[in-house]
Amino acid sequence: xxxxxxxxxxxxxxxxxxxxxxxxxxxxxxxxxxxxxxxxxxxxxxxxxxxxxxxxxxxxxxxxxxxxxxxxxxxxxxxxxxxxxxxxxxxxxxxxxxxxxxxxxxxxxxxxxxxxxxxxxxxxxxxxxxxxxxxxxxxxxxxxxxxxxxxxxxxxxxxxxxxxxxxxxxxxxxxxxxxxxxxxxxxxxxxxxxxxxxxxxxxxxxxxxxxxxxxxxxxxxxxxxxxxxxxxxxxxxxxxxxxxxxxxxxxxxxxxxxxxxxxxxxxxxxxxxxxxxxxxxxxxxxxxxxxxxxxxxxxxxxxxxxxxxxxxxxxxxxxxxxxxxxxxxxxxxxxxxxxxxxxxxxxxxxxxxxxxxxxxxxxxxxxxxxxxxxxxxxxxxxxxxxxxxxxxxxxxxxxxxxxxxxxxxxxxxxxxxxxxxxxxxxxxxxxxxxxxxxxxxxxxxxxxxxxxxxxxxxxxxxxxxxxxxxxxxxxxxxxxxxxxxxxxxxxx
Length: 492
Prior knowledge:
The chain is α+β, with helices and mostly antiparallel strands. It contains twelve helices and 26 strands. Strands 1, 2, 9, 10, 11, 12, 19 and 20 form an eight-stranded mixed sheet that branches. Strands 13, 15, 16, 17 and 18 form a five-stranded antiparallel sheet that branches. Strand 10 (173-179) and strand 11 form a beta hairpin. Helix 1 packs parallel to helix 5 (149-162). The longest helix has 20 residues, at 61-80. The chain is globular.
């Protein structure tokens, strides 16, 4: 019989990738199947906050997984070589009763009294000098942290691969049959066999569930829009700032990122699965963010974007299917999903009846950027490999060597946005305006493909569409299109 996988995981977001890593590290024969590239759905458009755990309602899966996941994060990020910064978070407002309620809720969820601190304005203003005049109290959660959600996601998937796991990206699942206690997964002109399925496919959960003949859920799509501010604004806040929460969520926040930008947002709008920004939504964020601090300069915005969160009622769904004991359903993983990922993975391993005692583990080589090296080490690196001395992305000072390094890791990269998420080429002020063509050319050369086959993000999103004259490897001899992130317009 063909190779049969112990487990096939649908969904290459942070939840699916974390489960994939855990199972591969204990010696299970796994495959992870993703419709696009890793971290290209909910996990890419994320605030990157590892929440402390005081917000979720007690006795829910959200509360349980958030607190446990938060406790696992530092060790996990150290293992992966992924930046993790415990900067703390403030919940700010003028209703002391709600602040006290959040404090009590945090203790119910398992936080220690030393993890939380109720503060009056006099103390807040010492810590946040530009605090809005209308705020008179707040809660400080010192365990709150920040990570790069997409780099974390990618490193987890890579860790699974180097520990024996297999993967399929850009895989279009057409049909799943269950016979003789095996799942036959058909798509892309191949059939993948697996004994157990984990459906962590986020947006596409119901689509896969329908093929599996298991439980489907009423999934609500909630769009959140964001501003990304330039590095020049990095000192405007040093910790994450939240307003007092509402029924729709944690509200419009202001937070540093691990890469030195400031993130402002999101709002929360019931929506279809469409990631577009709106003038109404961005104006809402502008108004609400100014209620937290003074002197927030949104004119320093370098990008606006929107992400989609999937919600099922008021809690996560993480369960064995009642219709097929060999299927694990994972749905509605909205906030605090990122914070909960390692705890959800731990729980799924137990649901499957496996011993979580780790076997021999191969560690991934951490990502690094040449610009972050000490001068002496940088000079040695360039002497050894001159490509690290050639700047491709001037905004973020990303070198050709950085990009080639990302392209030669355990998971193949075929998209410009895939490189962007791995090494930040294109994440600066010009948003790829001056380096996109150069990045595409490097991707094509390293993968031995035509530049016409390089994708921006999703299938059929080629940047170069036709040769005008001369050498197709020279971008200026090609007819090309560029999808604008701001308005969805296409130039070509």
